[in-house]
Design brief:
Elements: H1 9-12, E1 20-23, H2 28-36, H3 40-51, E2 59-63, H4 78-88, H5 91-118, E3 131-135, H6 149-168, E4 175-181, H7 187-190, H8 204-208, H9 221-233, E5 241-244
Parallel strand pairs: 1-2, 2-3, 3-4, 4-5
Length: 254
């Protein structure tokens, strides 16, 4: 049984001396890295660069996401519906979304497996401590396309990929879990960002207008951090998909 002092929050969720790699992003350099990772030679070079500086990593956050084409299925007439969707999306656009949102997540994780497993040799890190957190989306769980068939389908694939990897990498004692965010401030949701801080602002009113978010506001940095720290530090959790969505999936069919 654990001593009371070992249950202090600063001990339970401390990532002091952890080596963490965060890949991907929706814009800017993060997006450039994500897309580059689809090419094995670029990915291998990145792993080599990190290996030259670190003997192991404790956490890999695979965060990749581009919205892709928008096709809104509004018409009840099948001919018009087909025309609208066919003209607003294309196979190359779908391929780009899947390449960024799914393929890069898989190959990034595979490339870092040796460095992740190496962390278990460190005396301060327990077996099953290395962790991968895949950032998926509530959009990959819900049945509503939100006018983004390619994005939602790709995020659905990312959700299942997380489950596949958690099962298959169990033999290496590497945990894989996923966070499925709801509406958080980002350039994808807010359509803009502050150039200095690289942060976006998403007013409560914009979320309230959607009419399906019980929390009636976007998620905060702190709330995302809590989910990530929990999955990073709890070695007894593997293969889970945690929706941090303000209750949206309670109202939108999943």
């Amino acid at each position: 049984m654990a001593a009371t002092h070992s249950l202090q929050v600063e001990k339970l969720f401390s990532v002091k001396d952890y080596v963490c790699v965060v890949s991907g992003g929706g814009t800017g350099i993060g997006l450039m890295i994500t897309q580059a990772l689809a090419a094995n030679e670029q990915l291998e070079k990145l792993v080599q660069d990190i290996s030259s500086k670190e003997k192991h990593i404790n956490l890999l956050v695979a965060n990749a996401g581009i919205a892709g084409p928008k096709g809104i299925p509004e018409s009840s007439d099948a001919s018009q519906l087909s025309k609208d969707l066919w003209s607003s999306e294309s196979p190359p656009e779908w391929a780009s979304v899947f390449n960024t949102n799914v393929t890069s997540v898989y190959f990034t994780t595979v490339a870092f497996l040796p460095l992740l497993q190496a962390s278990q040799k460190h005396p301060d890190h327990a077996t099953r401590s290395p962790s991968v957190i895949v950032i998926s989306s509530m959009s990959g769980i819900m049945r509503n396309s939100q006018g983004h068939f390619a994005y939602n389908a790709a995020k659905g694939a990312t959700v299942h990929l997380s489950k596949l990897m958690s099962s298959e990498f169990e033999k290496a004692n590497i945990r894989v879990n996923s966070i499925a965010p709801g509406y958080f401030p980002s350039e994808m949701t807010a359509k803009s960002k502050d150039e200095d801080s690289n942060k976006s602002d998403l007013p409560d009113e914009k979320v309230q207008e959607k009419g399906h978010v019980p929390a009636e506001r976007p998620g905060s940095d702190e709330e995302m951090a809590m989910a990530a720290l929990f999955l990073c530090k709890n070695n007894y959790v593997n293969g889970e998909v945690i929706a941090v969505d303000g209750g949206t999936l309670n109202l939108v069919p999943a």
